[in-house]
Amino acid sequence: MTFRLRQIEFTADGREIVRERVVDKARLSVGRAAENDIHLPDLAVDPQHAMITQAGDNRLEVSAVGSLGFSLDGSVTLSGSLDIRTGAELRFGNYIIAVGRADDGGALLTIRQASDLGGKSADFDEKRGFSLAAVLPGKRRVSWLAALFILALFLAFPIVSQLTKGDDPKATVHGDGSWSAGKLSLAHHGLEQKCEACHVKPFEPVQDKACVACHTQVHDHADPARMAAGRGAGPLGQRILWSVAHAFGKPGPGACTDCHTEHEGATRMAAPAQQFCSDCHGALKENLADTRLGDAGDFGKLHPQFTPAIVTDPLTRKLTTVSLDAKPRENSGLAFTHAMHLDPRGGVARMAANIGAERGYGANGMQCKDCHRSTEDGIRFKPIDMERDCESCHSLAYDQVGGTFRRLRHGDVDQMVADLSAADMRRVIPVSRRRPGDFAPGRPYYSNFAPPSFSGGLVQQAMSKGGVCGECHTPAMANGKLGVVPVTLVSRYMQNGWFNHKAHAQETCTSCHAANKSNTSADVLLPGIAQCRTCHLGEDSTKAAVPSGCAMCHSYHPTAGVPRRFPQGKT
């Protein structure tokens, strides 16, 4: 048996609308929920109210699903049976379902609202005279008028205001606040209600020149032409999409608005996803054959070895970028060994323990922090200072007058020559006792911790190997004057990367820097990429202790004011 459902409704002016459909099922669901076979949008009806089931050739069984019943021929019940040949009437809330036999032998269910039963034209006209419909226009006309009013107020009025404001920079566009997609960030909150400051032309996306008009100190990531070449042509579908976008004035790819999205509220801009960088750098060698950069798409899978900038010529202080895979050697102009200073059983440790109360050294000898002092923010380290970090052991005293010691001025060779030349060669500072071992006369540390022997000239002794100057510096002559090879201590080896020491406070210095095994200042004590990968892997890695995207170590815009810059050239 099939069900023929006939839905009878009335329009606002009383016109009858009949919709009919055939349902070839053995069971129909009745309820307020839209997924029911017979949908009755009435709050008096449960979402799943009842089921109408075929019980034979001409019989139907009606049963309630929940506790709410229904009316069958005027009697309220939870279940009932009826014959389609004799017909019956079901009522659910404000809806009446008349059951009869269709011409094809199936069941005919006619559905209508009880309030529409008297909806004849004459009755409707009589009721309409007592309603607001008699004096107001129809709903359709009101809807059109409301739509036109909204368009005029929120679209046409701001456009006219924009076109008529002229070139006065103080003039503002009225009524455009309703177009705002949300609050601006804290950096741009002063531009609220001044849409034209960024959206210079109506209905045109924000252009790069509008951004750089204010952000004059923000530099391009690289030469725009080389960036476009490095990005590659891209797939056909992407090229088509960009051609359509360009037709409507959208800049890019690589435009400011690709990263810097506004109207997100007073929040920090989210760091660019790894894919944003790998779009260019993932196949950079393929697109830019002359680039010096290696391909980089994922820190754990595709990233070149670190290439720090080290000093290779101390006289010219030239910096050269060398891969750590090449085991580079640095020439800073300074003779220094970390291992000797960090040896807990060496002479330096013994001396540090003796003067620990005065200089703050620990009982177990010197530690990295005794010389490498972090900046206030904890991110980097302050430059090494001779008087503060070294002179407690490497004394610059060379004479004593009464109870006052005369000291050399570190860093001024001319003054050192003048002071030592004028010193009384016959005076010898009395020493209460001799030091044993390496501190005895003629041993490596004697010149640092005891007054110099003046025989042979103080200047020559000071500049000799093991002397107060020559122990750490290399003598050099320039224009006939005595001097030393310049010392260049690189404070930032990775010019195009960023590292935060404070974020790694849970690590010890020697877990990344093998200083306790370094016996020469030529060692470049930087960890390689393999060591960093023990914690850091790509942004999408599920095995990494710290999933790391490109933006964790790299910034898109060149940073102004770094200690040194690479020579200009192709990147």
Report what the structure shows.
The chain is an alpha+beta fold. 21% of the residues lie in helices and 16% in strands. It contains 16 helices and 20 strands. It has helices spanning 121-128, 139-164, 208-212, 224-231, 236-247, 256-259, 274-281, 284-287, 338-342, 347-354, 356-359, 386-390, 413-422, 446-449, 458-463, 529-532, and strands at residues 3-10, 16-23, 27-31, 38-39, 50-54, 59-64, 70-72, 75-77, 79-83, 88-92, 95-101, 107-113, 309-313, 318-321, 397-401, 404-407, 475-478, 481-484, 536-537, 546-547. Strands 2-1-12-11-10-7-8 form a seven-stranded mixed sheet, with no helix packed on it. β11 (95-101) and β12 form a beta hairpin. The relative contact order is 0.08. Residues 118-122, 424-429, 447-456 and 561-571 have low confidence and may be disordered.
Short description:
With 571 residues, the chain is of the alpha+beta class.
Tell me, briefly, the overall form: elongated
The biggest sheet amounts to:
7 strands, mixed
Mean pLDDT: 84
Work out the helicity level: 10-25%
Describe this protein with a few key phrases:
five-stranded mixed β-sheet, elongated, 21% helix, alpha+beta, seven-stranded mixed β-sheet, 16 helices, 571 residues, disordered C terminus, single chain
Give the SSE layout.
Elements: E1 3-10, E2 16-23, E3 27-31, E4 38-39, E5 50-54, E6 59-64, E7 70-72, E8 75-77, E9 79-83, E10 88-92, E11 95-101, E12 107-113, H1 121-128, H2 139-164, H3 208-212, H4 224-231, H5 236-247, H6 256-259, H7 274-281, H8 284-287, E13 309-313, E14 318-321, H9 338-342, H10 347-354, H11 356-359, H12 386-390, E15 397-401, E16 404-407, H13 413-422, H14 446-449, H15 458-463, E17 475-478, E18 481-484, H16 529-532, E19 536-537, E20 546-547
Parallel strand pairs: 1-12, 3-4, 19-20
Antiparallel strand pairs: 1-2, 3-5, 5-6, 6-9, 7-8, 7-10, 10-11, 11-12, 13-14, 15-16, 17-18
